[in-house]
Amino acid sequence: MQRTIDLLFSVFGLLVAMPLLLVLLVLGLFDTGSPVFRQVRVGRDQRPFTLLKFRTMRPETRSVATHLADPASITRLGAFLRRTKLDELPQRWNVLRGEMSLVGPRPCLPSQHELIDARDARGVFRARPGITGLAQIQGIDMSTPELLAETDARMLENSGLLPYFKYLLLTITGKGSGDRVRDNSVQTQNRRS
């Protein structure tokens, strides 16, 4: 049932958002010259797939987990896309291809071994990764692998249509921050205090 809803929402979302997608593509061309970002992520049963997003950082930015990225690499348009979560729109294509669901554990990078091991131990990879989920609305990111894997497993244990719609609604209304770029200057200041 969830897969059917994923497909319906993704097709409808892409059709309705088509004018916005085109505008963001053009703006992204002017912003970075390369508006769509592609990155290999770990999917269901640990199969790799290429995740699509609107680019929010300069093209030469090192490919690392979001919490390790340099905040200075985010463009002005990218900051807006991240704040409004519009950078996630192209992932509807990943949903249509069956690589992702609208709701599920956020897909990690193949280099995030600690998180992969923690998720594997809890059976998280039996599900399709998602655009949003329990961890995202609670503001848990990939910097805490064990907590993230535990939260993902809890979400999967309590899955169903009601939680599915709840996570979607909370995400649309702006709840949680999910994977976020950390401000290194604030972290450095906190260490000095």
Low-confidence stretches: 184-193
**Helical stretch count?**
8
Rg, rounded, reads 16 Å
Strand content: 5-15%
Question: pLDDT average, as an integer?
Answer: 88
Structural class: mainly alpha
What does this structure look like?
It is a single chain. With 193 residues, the chain is mainly alpha-helical. Helices cover 48% and strands 10% of the residues. It has helices at residues 2-32, 76-84, 91-96, 113-121, 134-137, 145-157, 161-172, 184-192, and strands at residues 36-42, 48-54, 101-103, 130-132. The strands form 2 sheets. A two-stranded antiparallel sheet has the order 1-2. It has a two-stranded parallel ribbon with strand order 3-4. A hairpin with a 5-residue loop joins β1 (36-42) and β2. It starts with a helix and ends with a helix.
Furnish the topology, listing elements before pairings.
Elements: H1 2-32, E1 36-42, E2 48-54, H2 76-84, H3 91-96, E3 101-103, H4 113-121, E4 130-132, H5 134-137, H6 145-157, H7 161-172, H8 184-192
Parallel strand pairs: 3-4
Antiparallel strand pairs: 1-2
Structure described in brief:
This protein has eight helices and four strands; from the N terminus they run αββααβαβαααα.
Attribute tags:
disordered C terminus, mainly alpha, 193 residues, two-stranded antiparallel sheet, two-stranded parallel sheet
